[in-house]
Amino acid sequence: MGNSEVTLNFKTLSKKQFQLTFNASETLEVVKEKVAVHEHLLASTVKLVYQGKELTESTKTLQELGFDPNISIIVVGKKTKLQTQTTNNASSPSNVNNNITQIEEQIQKSTPTKEEITLSKINEIQQRAENLEQEVKSLKDKREELGEKKYIFEKKKCDEYLTLCLIDLDGINVEGNEELRKKRRTTIVFIQSVQSFIESNL
């Protein structure tokens, strides 16, 4: 039991959030399996996206990968909802074959689409901004504790990081997708509101 524990945050495309704890020596493949069980997903369809990139190094350990616990890993996968169908229709070979075909189709469709990856990038930036918002709000109460010089430095750093979030959003192509365009716009407005808070309250 000498392995240290690592708690990771996960978020589905439907914005459901959950945490799972692993040993630092466990591999990414084990993480995928546990996520599949937790979310009732077909294990073969599970894709994990971190900071806009799909995680594919299945044999690497969590210690080697060094995830930031403050950044959620986006989960993409297909639900195992065909299990009940297979059980109910097990007596019919044609139904079993149909179910197998459907499962194969689901697996083929499990690779994250361009839209899903774009959405995960926007969600990741949104989360960075939300973390910065919490940091900004806590700064107000730490002014005396930090001292004026350190306080100004932290305030400027938060503002610069928020600006980087805006730059990252500007580099995301949402042309032709109204839902993604609205999501990006909402995130931009949120970031600008945090920057306004810094200007008017700090």
Automatic annotation (TrEMBL):
Alphabetized PROSITE patterns for the sequence: BAG, UBIQUITIN_2
Residue ranges constituting the BAG domain according to the UniProt record: 121-202
Name by which UniProt lists this protein: Ubiquitin-like domain-containing protein
CDD domains: UBX
Record field: transmembrane: none
Keyword set, alphabetical order: Coiled coil
This protein's record includes keyword NADP: no
Coiled coil: 115-149
Recorded GO MF terms: protein-folding chaperone binding
SMART domains: UBQ (SM00213)
SUPFAM superfamilies: BAG domain, Ubiquitin-like
Gene3D superfamilies: BAG domain, Phosphatidylinositol 3-kinase Catalytic Subunit, Chain A, domain 1
Superkingdom classification of source: Eukaryota
Pfam families to which the protein is assigned, alphabetical: BAG, ubiquitin
Domain Ubiquitin-like: 6-80
